[in-house]
Amino acid sequence: MKLLSQCAIVTGGAQGIGLAVASRLMREGTHVLVFGRTETKVVEAAERLNREAEGRARAVPFAGDVCRVDDVERAHECATRELGLPGILVNNAGTVSLSLLMDLPEDELDRLFAVNLKGPFLCLKTFARALIARNQPGAVVNVSSLCQTVVSEGLGHYSASKAALAQLSRAAALELGRHNIRVNVVAPGATHTPQAAAFIEGPTMHRELLARTPLGRAHALADEVARVVMFLCSEDSVWVTGESLDVDGGNHLRGLPNYWEALNPPR
């Protein structure tokens, strides 16, 4: 697979889907800035990725907050200085919580929209401006969720943030196309990651997901999502922009289970 650039930024790159994406990128010879909130985690992830890459590519850790413009700009400067001008951006950092809308605190809504929408916006803006200034092409993949199009009790605020991200991605694809910068979305369903484990591993939720997934498995592996991200970062998708790909084993065909009832059974 021929990737669009030999330098990438992956947010939320220290674990789960982000780590799997970074690993896949480096296997193909692309250097990666691993952008995450916790310094120990990004350092450990970069060390692991460098061991696995065996010299084919290099990972550099960066600890910062995607919701802070200063951190985002410093991350881009670090990537450019250490690895070269980034031509690939994977906005994978995200957060989720479970709450009925009538019980949702205002600050929790603010937090979700900051991480799931503002963060990708700030990263995309900084990334695209640098490419436009140098007349270079680029590829952005925003990792959303199946919840951008289907809803479940307890995840209304999360669904709203991911739907907003999908629309932001379409608008960015429209505006940046003239600069040869493509923007696409990958929308995973249930995926086995450290963040999602509590949601999907309980017996009730596992049974529900299994029943609703046509391909006969309850969840994806992080690397299975990473493979689709790789396609959208490669020259194989050179004529694809403004698109959203569900990576869910067909779960969207039957809809989400009731997360709230599955995780809060009546006593």
Summary of the model, kept short:
It holds the Pfam family adh_short_C2. 45% of the residues lie in helices and 16% in strands.
Percent strand equals 15-25%
- Under CATH, the homologous superfamily reads NAD(P)-binding Rossmann-like Domain
How many distinct beta strands? 9
Radius of gyration, rounded?
18 Å
The spatial strand order of the largest sheet comes to 3-2-1-4-5-6-9
Backbone structural class: alpha/beta
Poorly predicted runs are none
CATH architecture: 3-Layer(aba) Sandwich
The number of helical runs is 9
For this entry, what is the oligomeric state of its chains?
Answer: single chain
Overall average residue pLDDT: 93
Shape: globular
What is the CATH class name?
A: Alpha Beta
Report, as a whole number of angstroms, the end-to-end distance: 52 Å
Largest sheet: 7 strands, parallel
The total tally of domains equals 1
Q: What percent of residues adopt helix (DSSP H or I)?
A: 40-55%
**SSE series:** EHEHEHEHEHEEHHEHEH
CATH topology: Rossmann fold
Describe how the helices and strands are arranged:
Layout: E1 7-11, H1 16-27, E2 31-36, H2 39-53, E3 59-63, H3 69-82, E4 88-91, H4 106-133, E5 138-143, H5 156-176, E6 181-188, E7 191-192, H6 197-200, H7 203-212, E8 220-221, H8 222-233, E9 244-247, H9 259-263
Parallel strand pairs: 1-2, 1-4, 2-3, 4-5, 5-6, 6-9, 7-8
Helix pairs in contact: 1-2, 1-8, 3-4, 4-5
Organism: Myxococcus fulvus
Domain Ketoreductase: 6-189
InterPro entries: KR_dom, NAD(P)-bd_dom_sf, Sc_DH/Rdtase_CS, SDR_fam
